[in-house]
Amino acid sequence: MNVAAIFSGKAYNTICELLGANWYAVVATIGLAALAVCHIVYAFILTAQNRSARGSERYAVTAKPEKVEWASQNMLVLGLIVVLGIGLHLFNFWYKMMFAELAGMQTALSPSDGFGLIKATFSNPVYVVLYIIWLVAIWFHLSHGFWSAMQTLGINGKVWFTRWKVIGIVYVTVLMLAFVAVVLAFYFGIAPSLCAAA
């Protein structure tokens, strides 16, 4: 959906208008929020259980195992960056679009003018840097999380373990590059002009 903004402001705003604050978009948003909260709570519970299982000797060995990926060792830090990025994204877009429409708030741009909002947000280099950091953290988090979820569900074996890793990395890389492309296209002015959005 967001990639459409690179090619046509009008098409992107049509999508924004279609979704808007319609009941199905609100239900989907509440569902995603509930799943995100469950994921975060469960991650903290698992972290606490892992630390408890290790007891007071958890720092007895400080060498990092060679087979354990960097993302796996830093999942909590990556998770915190992802959560902070979600907060920033909710403020920059959800609050000014869906929430503004639901609450009947007056905003500088129409809640359905997602194109204008993307353009305004990513004309600020601070937001560009913060979003790229956020998207890189999401890449690490998801590229590890994808195959890790398959392993947790038991949908892996000697052959499929490597395949899930490759599938996960390819999928997540394509997805995150699409998001980064939107950020950079608007920052460097490659996206269509605001006039083309009308």
Automatic annotation (TrEMBL):
It comes from the Bacteria. The chain crosses the membrane at residues 23-48, 75-95, 126-147, 168-190. Keywords: Membrane, Transmembrane, Transmembrane helix. The keyword rRNA-binding does not apply. This is Fumarate reductase. It comes from Prevotella herbatica.
